[in-house]
Design brief:
Structural class: alpha+beta
Strand order of the largest sheet: 2-3-1-4-7-6-5
Amino acid sequence: MIPQRLSAVTLGARDLPSLRRFYRGLGWQEITGSDDHWTSYLAGGVLLALFPEEELDAEAGAPDGRGGFTLALNVDQVDQVDEVYSQALAAGATSLAEPQDRSWGGRSAYIADPEGNRWEVAWAPGVVFGERGDVVSFG
């Protein structure tokens, strides 16, 4: 069973430092470890992440671009990335990037739903979920 949760929305930023200044200008508090390469905010139990657009598309196996954003489903254990990826393909998803260990310390895979919306299935060290499956802390 794939957990029914939306853990993160990652926006592909064309100018991450500028976008970061915008969200700080709103008064939003960044998660520890944020910088001009990756920034994240805890927004009501979902992470809003900012990541360079070209790098997001390259990591997702879609160098031609797929809309500038990715929805993410974070799982509790590293081996669940492969399990959820396989289950999603069996349900009709298209593979964009097979499960692999990432330079940021976690493991992820990318799929597209039948209409091409991009999802990341990820395990990230330090993500803690609450009882309802919402993200309660990161890092």
